[in-house]
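Shipment paperwork, digital attachment
Item: protein structure file
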Amino acid sequence: VNSSSVNVLGVLRCNWGEVHHLVGVAVTPVVCFLGETNQLDPNPDEVAEAFTVPLELFLDRDRWVHKQHYAPIFTAGPHLIWGLTGY
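Attachment content:
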């Protein structure tokens, strides 16, 4: 991704202790707008597949599964999104 096309929208707040307990690491989630994403070129040694999901689907609470002691699971798009990605 060309860095000049990245527009940082904000940094997400979360419970760092909960994230570390669930996934074993602490991260800072940053939300960005990339514009058109039809030019993604991920490193094949690191990424098996890349796909997009419309933002409005993430805002639909019915598409999320929450279980105690587990990271949330997002249930729309071509794959389930879970673990640190779903948090």
